[in-house]
């Protein structure tokens, strides 16, 4: 039986039925369409700025409007009591129908076991002789924070728990409050946990450089970071950066192409090219593609994780000794939007979900999320740490960071307790369903040259 290759957020789409849109709902959609054009003023803006506003605008953005976009389960699923996969899917169907949430994250579906696996990975790797300091970017409902702190309280030496601090950096005020309530259910956690309601990409929000070792956790964060888009008329033409501008009717948006000039885009293009060239060495397939592209030229589009590059540049600057755990989608099914690493733009209302054909249709009512190229993420991490120099004259023999990419199932088999999420017939949704997700672990080394 084929395992589900659906994203966590697409799980809700698995149970969708079509519906007729009422007049009231049509008016609501119309009002949101005006917001999409308000994102763009008289001057065009970069695609990343359009996406950032569509997701994070304080008044009209998706996460501002959907405080319940991230679901909170009242109780943990008792996996060992479910007969098998069909029973599990029926249970999920019931949960989604009872909830007004757009999706349940894996840390929520598999609580507390998912967070416990992350906590175990930290405990095995961290230097516990110094106070444990953890940052979580985009903490959702606070379930991960509570699960990690619970695990450390029960399994680490008492001094480790007593001296630890856990800081959530959360851009959404409503989610920040939910996190405080979730973690606050355990009184002893309260003095160790804090929420800073701000954008993690804003360098000024971090204050002074923090030289002490720490951990940074990012679960399903990379997929929602703004991306840029570049375009080429054919495979041999130069890349151009894509901007968004209002059409002459002022009520619709179109793309505008300009020569590469944005510094962040240019840095990201360099890293992407370095990554592709490194993989393509001595590759017959790459040479064949080059011949084919010259013979049959066609337009190209490529999505760049400039938001990820920007965030990692900030984190490496203010937390130079950080260790990183990130988990996200390695690919997305049924993407309709053109371009390499293209996003899924999906909305859900009254139990019905639909995907948009264009990212320009996102009007504050739609989630925009991207797959993560984990090999590219590794190169960005090395670049931001200062090790990967794209124009360096001397080759480097060592790396400043040790990195590893693991499938979710491999990560949980190594650090988690997969027996806790196994069904009676042996099926394990944590290991078997989420084939489109991976973990990225990155820790500093003593090699600083």
Automatic annotation (TrEMBL):
A cellular component annotation (GO) from this entry: mitochondrion
The UniProt entry, under Pfam families, shows: Methyltransf_28
Q: What Enzyme Commission number(s) appear in the record?
A: 2.1.1.320
Q: Where is the signal peptide?
A: 1-23
A GO molecular-function descriptor: protein-arginine omega-N symmetric methyltransferase activity
Name the domain of life this protein comes from. Answer: Eukaryota
What keyword terms does UniProt attach to this protein? Methyltransferase, Mitochondrion, Signal, Transferase
Recorded catalytic reaction(s): these are: L-arginyl-[protein] + 2 S-adenosyl-L-methionine = N(omega),N(omega)'-dimethyl-L-arginyl-[protein] + 2 S-adenosyl-L-homocysteine + 2 H(+)
Q: Which GO terms describe its biological process?
A: methylation
Q: Where in the cell is it found?
A: Mitochondrion
Extract the InterPro entries matched here: NDUFAF7, NDUFAF7_sf, SAM-dependent_MTases_sf
Described purpose of this protein according to its UniProt entry? Arginine methyltransferase involved in the assembly or stability of mitochondrial NADH:ubiquinone oxidoreductase complex (complex I).
- Family named by the database record: Belongs to the NDUFAF7 family.
Q: What is this protein called?
A: Protein arginine methyltransferase NDUFAF7
């Amino acid at each position: 039986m084929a395992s589900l290759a659906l994203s966590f957020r697409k799980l809700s789409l698995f149970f969708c039925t079509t519906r007729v849109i009422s007049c009231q709902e049509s008016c609501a959609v119309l009002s949101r369409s005006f917001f999409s054009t308000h994102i763009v003023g008289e001057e065009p803006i970069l695609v990343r700025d359009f996406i950032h506003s569509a997701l994070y605008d304080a008044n009209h953005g998706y996460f501002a409007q959907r405080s319940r976009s991230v679901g909170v389960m009242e109780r943990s699923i008792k996996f060992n009591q479910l007969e098998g996969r069909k029973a599990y899917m029926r249970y999920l169907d019931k949960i989604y129908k009872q909830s007004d949430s757009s999706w349940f994250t894996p840390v929520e579906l598999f609580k507390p076991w998912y967070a416990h696996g992350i906590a175990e990975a930290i405990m095995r790797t961290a230097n516990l002789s110094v106070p444990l300091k953890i940052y979580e970017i985009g903490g959702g409902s606070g379930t991960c924070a509570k699960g990690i702190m619970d695990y450390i309280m029960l399994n680490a030496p008492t001094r480790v728990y007593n001296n630890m601090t856990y800081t959530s950096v959360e851009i959404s005020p409503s989610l920040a409050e939910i996190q405080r309530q979730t973690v606050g259910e355990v009184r002893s956690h309260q003095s160790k946990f804090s929420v800073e309601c701000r954008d993690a990409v804003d360098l000024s929000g971090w204050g002074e450089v923090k030289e002490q070792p720490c951990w940074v956790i990012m679960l399903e964060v990379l997929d929602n970071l703004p991306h840029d888009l570049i375009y080429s008329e054919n495979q041999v033409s130069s890349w151009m950066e894509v901007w968004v501008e209002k059409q002459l009717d002022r009520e619709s948006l179109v793309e505008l192409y300009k020569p590469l000039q944005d510094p962040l885009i240019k840095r990201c293009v360099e890293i992407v090219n370095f990554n592709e060239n490194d993989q393509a060495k001595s590759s017959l397939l790459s040479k064949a593609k080059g011949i084919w592209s010259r013979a049959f030229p066609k337009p190209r589009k490529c999505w760049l994780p400039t938001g990820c590059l920007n965030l990692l540049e900030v984190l490496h600057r203010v937390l130079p000794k950080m260790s990183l755990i990130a988990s996200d989608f390695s690919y997305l099914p049924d993407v309709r939007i053109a371009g390499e690493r293209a996003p899924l733009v999906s909305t859900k209302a009254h139990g019905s979900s639909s995907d948009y054909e264009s990212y320009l249709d996102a009007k504050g009512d739609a989630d925009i999320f991207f797959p993560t190229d984990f090999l590219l993420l590794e190169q960005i991490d090395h670049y931001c740490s200062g090790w990967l120099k794209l124009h360096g004259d001397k080759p480097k023999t060592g790396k400043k960071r040790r990195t590893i990419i693991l499938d979710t199932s491999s990560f949980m088999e190594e650090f988690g307790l997969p027996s806790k999420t196994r069904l009676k017939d042996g099926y394990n949704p944590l290991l078997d369903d989420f084939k489109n997700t991976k973990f990225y672990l990155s820790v500093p080394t003593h090699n600083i040259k």
